[in-house]
Fold this sequence. Notes:
CATH topology: Tetracycline Repressor, domain 2
Strand content: under 5%
Distance between the termini: 45 Å
Number of helices: 11
Helix content: over 70%
Amino acid sequence: MLNGTELKLFADAHVLDEMTDKQVRILLAAIEVFAEKGYANASTKEIANKADVAEGNIFSKYKNKRGLLNAIINPVIHSIFPAVLSDFNDASPIQSNYVTLHSFVDTVLRDRVQFLKENSAVLKIFVSELLYNNDVRVKLMQQFPTSYWKNINHNLNVLKENHLMVDWENTEILKLMWSVVSGMIVGYLLFNQPLESKEINHCIDALVKALSR
């Protein structure tokens, strides 16, 4: 079953503002069915049954199953994901006079893991599309706010200047970080691998060891 946080995710992005109660039930039912069975194995009939509406109600609002999927994916790309990145930038500035590599990696990782766990059904659908749909990947990269890249590059440069991190190009450092974190995310969302404190701490320790001077 979905949790209240995942509905709040769409409410905060104003996706639900113009929706009727019936349309909200359809959207939530689609999230649940797509997350459980995958897009290819889901049917609009099953979604309609779970939402307790006639199947025609789906087609009148979303046209077809792909339209329903896009109603879930597009807000993540255009509203939710950029907002999360901006909130992260605003909430976690790096102070060069006391920062350690461990605190940087911990900050980058731990809050995002909490967001991942609170919104796992929506993100499972999104990650599945991200892996197999190049258009989704392109749209996602276009939505990274400029402030994110500016802030993350500043943080990496401070760590290198303070001799707390390997002196690699920032793109190399980010590639390593994203590969480790992405593996953890995919394992949790698509393969039901555990993601508790032990696993998070091991991931942080691995990144710190790999990136230390």
